[in-house]
Design brief:
mainly alpha; 3 helices; 0% strand
Length: 67
């Protein structure tokens, strides 16, 4: 009874270790954004808002009763 359990663990443990290593090597799509002056806005967003351009959502807001 112990042999099948030992064999299963011997086969499964290296696979889970490899999956964990692959997870640690993954770089986040958000890496580097923590150093922004406003973390949730890109430099393009900030310059567009300073210019007064907005994000082009006025029509959507108006159609949904937000104006």
């Amino acid at each position: 009874m112990k042999l099948p359990i030992t064999l299963a663990l011997t086969l499964l443990l290296p696979a889970t270790a490899g999956a964990q290593q692959a997870h640690h090597d993954h770089k986040s799509a958000y890496a580097g954004e923590e150093v922004r002056s406003i973390k949730s806005l890109s430099e393009d967003d900030i310059s567009e808002l300073r210019r007064g351009g907005g994000w082009g959502l006025a029509k959507a807001a108006e159609l949904n009763g937000m104006s």
